[in-house]
Design goal:
By secondary structure, the chain is of the alpha/beta class. It has 2 domains: about 15-125, no CATH class; about 190-330, Trna Endonuclease, Chain: A, domain 1, CATH 3.40.1350. The protein is about 50% helix and about 15% strand. The chain has helices at about 1-15, 35-60, 65-85, 90-100, 110-120, 130-140, 145-155, 160-170, 180-185, 215-220, 225-230, 275-295, 315, and strands at about 20, 35, 200, 235-245, 250-260, 265-270, 305-310, 325-330. A 6-stranded mixed beta sheet has the order 3-8-7-6-5-4. A hairpin with a 4-residue loop joins strand 5 and strand 6 (about 265-270).
């Protein structure tokens, strides 16, 4: 008994300002929390930031989002500084104490998100249009370029948290061409074809086992808005099986779209086979027809997209018309 009291007294001498802390080095089993010294300073600052934010939520509804982001950035910085001094385990210790004193919103995971938010935002302004819920979705990603892409898309398209989650789940950024990613990184000018995903995801809502061009077209038309998002932004639908007359024969364009941002028609041809050189010739004829018959002098030249089961990079490589691209499709 005397030995135990002596050990406890020794621990107290080592840590005079601590209130029951675990110390692996000393062998003392002290199981609660530091409240004194610099560590206590970090904790009190973090706690006060979070309390002030909760107060602001109640009295200034118009600025809730801005306050959230500012608060979590500041807390993230304090957690980063505390971690450098006291190690990674300090976040868990803070979480236990905050949960006990302020409620269930401050789990270890939540605090880790705040610290990661600080690391990501350091040196750049946060996007005020995004909520903390948006950032929670984004901070699960590891690549900052990918995070920036989804931030820009969220702002541009006014995405909800659910819509953003769906984009991330579909690996939209990963399905962009490497040239596009480089342009985004370097902030270079983008073309209409840069945002066409590869593969293009098409919902197989009826679980068709055999896919013909007619079936593929049917699946696309069942959810034409989702399909156009796979091609990029600002597309509008003109028609399917769009009838054109070349000489004395009628031909039918699988899908005719228009892109408002780039001010041009877009011809889409569907192929359930590997890309072939004759597909290039076919879509080129259709594009030239649209340019000659529908396009006016203020509109840009028509773009052609061939969507096929399997791409052949050599066919496209030796295609002399840079307006034509090919992408594979994938049924989901």
């Amino acid at each position: 008994m005397a030995a135990k009291l002596s050990k406890r007294k020794k621990c107290s001498q080592w840590l005079p300002n601590w209130k029951r802390v675990k110390s692996a080095a000393s062998g003392c089993k002290i199981d609660s929390f530091i409240i004194g010294g610099l560590n206590g300073f970090y904790y009190r600052k973090i706690k006060q930031e979070l309390i002030n934010n909760e107060i602001n939520k109640k009295v200034k509804n118009y600025s809730i989002n801005k306050n959230d982001l500012t608060t979590y950035y500041n807390v993230g910085k304090l957690l980063s500084d505390a971690g450098k001094s006291y190690g990674e385990g300090i976040i868990k210790e803070y979480s236990i104490k905050l949960t006990k004193e302020l409620g269930k919103n401050y789990s270890t995971r939540s605090l880790n998100y705040m610290r990661k938010f600080y690391y990501f935002q350091k040196g750049q302004p946060s996007a005020a249009q995004l909520t903390w819920s948006h950032y929670i979705e984004l901070l699960s990603l590891k690549d900052n370029e990918e995070i920036n892409y989804y931030i820009n898309q969220s702002i541009l398209l006014n995405l909800s948290k659910r819509e953003l989650r769906e984009k991330i789940k579909s690996r939209e950024y990963e399905r962009l061409d490497e040239t596009t990613k480089l342009k985004l990184t370097n902030e270079e000018q983008l073309d209409i074809t840069d945002f066409v995903k590869n593969p293009i995801l098409i919902k197989n809502s009826n679980n068709y086992q055999e896919i013909s061009e007619k079936v593929l077209q049917k699946l696309i038309l069942e959810d034409i808005e989702s399909f156009m998002v796979e091609l990029g932004n600002n597309f509008s639908f003109i028609g399917s099986e769009y009838k054109i007359k070349i000489g004395d024969k009628y031909n039918y364009i699988d899908l005719l779209l228009y892109n408002i941002e780039f001010n041009c028609y877009v011809v889409v041809e569907l192929k359930v086979t590997e890309l072939k050189k004759e597909h290039i010739g076919q879509i080129q004829v259709y594009m030239n027809y649209i340019d000659n018959s529908l396009r006016n002098v203020n509109q840009n030249k028509t773009i052609g997209i061939i969507i096929c089961k399997r791409d052949d990079k050599y066919v496209i490589e030796y295609c002399s018309d840079p307006r034509i691209i090919s992408r594979e499709y994938k049924l989901v």
